[in-house]
Amino acid sequence: MGHHDLFFKQTFSIREHAADFVKHTLPPELAVEMDFSTLTIEKGSHVDTELAENFTDTVYTCRISGIQIKIALLFEHKSSPDNNLQFQLLRYMGNLWENSIKQKQPRIPVVPIVLYHGRKSWNPSTLSSRFENFPVAVKPYIPDFEFVFVDLSAYSNKKYI
Fold first, then answer.
1. 3-class SS at 93?
2. Could you tell me what percentage of the chain is helix, strand and coil, using 3-state DSSP and rounding each to the nearest 5?
3. If exposure means fewest CB atoms within 10 Å of the residue's CB, which of 30, 145, 155, 160 is most exposed?
4. Burial class of residue 113 (count of CB atoms within 10 Å of its CB; 0-12, 13-18, 19+)
5. If DSSP codes are grouped into helix, strand and coil, which group holds residue 68?
């Protein structure tokens, strides 16, 4: 595990740190509905072998308007933007749901939060944007979802050393 992975894993394994980060990162209309006193870390990894090369994950559950949801903190450490991020997120979310099926638990929504720590700025778009050249009639067959993206590339480590 690299030093960035270890830093994020240790920082966000502390519930108070994760709650503060999520509270200030999620869109306000979502954050205001959440009961952060119920934020609970899930033990065990949910990433398959291939995705483990790309993500360090910490998954929390939390109640929102009385209903349980999962908040997947996905720490992305690629050195350059990746056009496959949306596909990786979809697979990651599918893995979480697949695990809940295997464990005979209800499927609950997943709110992915991606932290990017590459060298240059990046603003990834949605999954449907990966299929822009296709006719509009195809759009309903493309699964689309939102994710929270935090670009840390503008911050310098040198300020803090």
1. helix
2. 40, 25, 40
3. 160
4. buried
5. strand
Residue 92 backbone phi and psi in degrees, to 5? -60, -50
For the chain, 161 residues long, give each residue's pLDDT as a single digit of tens: 566 667 777 888 889 999 999 999 999 999 999 999 999 888 765 566 666 666 667 888 899 988 988 888 776 666 678 888 999 899 988 988 998 899 998 888 889 888 887 878 888 989 988 888 999 999 899 999 999 998 888 776 665 55
Q: What's the residue count for the chain?
A: 161
pTM (2 decimals)? Answer: 0.84
Residue type, 46: H
Q: Are 67 and 104 in contact (CB under 8 A)?
A: no
67, 71, 64, 73: which is closest to 35 by C-alpha?
64
If you ran DSSP here, which 8-state letter would residue 121 be given? -
pLDDT of residue 53: 64
**Distance between CA atoms of residues 23 and 31, nearest Å:** 6
> Got the DSSP string for 35-52?
EEEEEEEPPS----HHHH
pLDDT of residue 96: 87
Tokens 């502390």, residue located: 14
Provide the residue type at 125 as one letter. S
